[in-house]
Amino acid sequence: MNYYSKQINKAFENAKVISTEKYPQIAFFSDCHRGSGTWNDSFLHNKTLYQAALEYYWERNFAYVEIGDGDELWENRCFNDIYEIHSDVFKRLERFGTSERLFMLFGNHDKVKATRGFCTSGNFFSPPYYESLIIKTPDKNKDLYLIHGHQADLLNDRLWPLARWMVRYLWKPLELAGFKDPTSAARNYKKSNKVEQRLINWAQQNNQNIMAGHTHRPAMALKGNIEYMNTGSAIHPNGVTCIELVCGKLNLVKWTTCVDENRRLYVCRQEIEEARIF
Questions:
Q1: What is the C-alpha separation between 185 and 37, in angstroms, rounded?
Q2: pLDDT in tens, 157-167
């Protein structure tokens, strides 16, 4: 067993487990990277689209699952600053939590949530965070295994303090000059391919469907006898992507800005791809 398979196995040892019997409708998001409202807050661009999506899923009784990197805690030291800027978003998420429809995983950019060491004070929104989630279906061979995906990326897993230092003190200022962070799987095509293939290999070896984030590349692909899924991100220039589970069917969805026949802008939901799990 290679290093990456061991890390993924370890992540699932204490997974939170829920069932589609209790939650037949679930919306899966990842990589929102909510920031502190400064020039490098990538979330700001799509905040309105994301809020519209949250309202849609709240009104239709969906559960909300966030598969890591919800908050940008590499570039920002304190969650307080993020909460103050995006308190309206967190209040919407808190509604899901109050109704027991909220499940939050941590990724590499918000891994400090695993130890609660992310600089909070006051009565802030503070749900439990997990490293992984398993969703049980009527057919046990069709269960969904959820993980952020950094476990298949050495620099962003075992060496994450180094990667955080590089992002915070090196690549953050260089972004102003137009440089892209080569350590990021989301910005490095070859690295993204390697991470995704490691996740797929684990899923095939364990005969389990897997859903992840991390690479920011939305996907819903049948690989042999398993489904590999990636929710994409909420910070793509053209919109917010997510995956919906509705009564056994999975939809890859994009929330974006559209124009009607009267040239008025509105938020639209576009179904990109679908797959039946059970």
A1: 24
A2: 999 899 898 88
Q: CA 40, CA 44: separation in Å to the nearest integer? A: 9
Report if residue 140 sits inside a domain: yes
Q: Where are the alpha helices (DSSP H) in 125-214?
A: 160-166, 172-174, 189-206
CA 75 – CA 33 distance, rounded (Å)? 10
On the question of pLDDT at 276 being above 90, the answer is no
Beta strands in the chain (DSSP E): 16-19, 25-29, 63-67, 102-105, 129-130, 132-136, 144-147, 209-212, 219-223, 226-230, 240-246, 249-259, 265-276
Count up the domains in the chain and report the number: 1
pTM of the complete model:
0.93
pLDDT at 126: 80
State both tokens at 251. 């939809």
Instruction: Tell me the per-residue pLDDT of 76-127, one tens digit each, with 9 for 90 and over.
Output: 988 889 999 999 999 999 999 999 999 999 999 999 988 765 565 556 678 8
Q: How far apart are CA 65 and CA 170, in angstroms?
A: 32
Q: Is residue 89 part of a domain?
A: yes
Interhelix angle 47-59/87-98, rounded to 10 degrees, is 20
The whole domain housing 134 covers: 15-148+208-276
Dist. CA 179–CA 171, nearest whole Å:
8
Q: Is residue 257 part of a domain?
A: yes
32 in any annotated domain: yes
Nearest to 241 by CA among 256, 254, 251, 229: 254
The domain that contains 245 carries what CATH number?
A: 3.60.21.10
- Rounded to an integer, what is the distance from CA 108 to the centroid of its chain? 11
pLDDT confidence bin for 178, thresholds 50/70/90: low
Angle at 77 between CA 239 and CA 190, to 5 degrees: 50
| Distance of alpha carbon 30 from alpha carbon 32, whole angstroms | 6
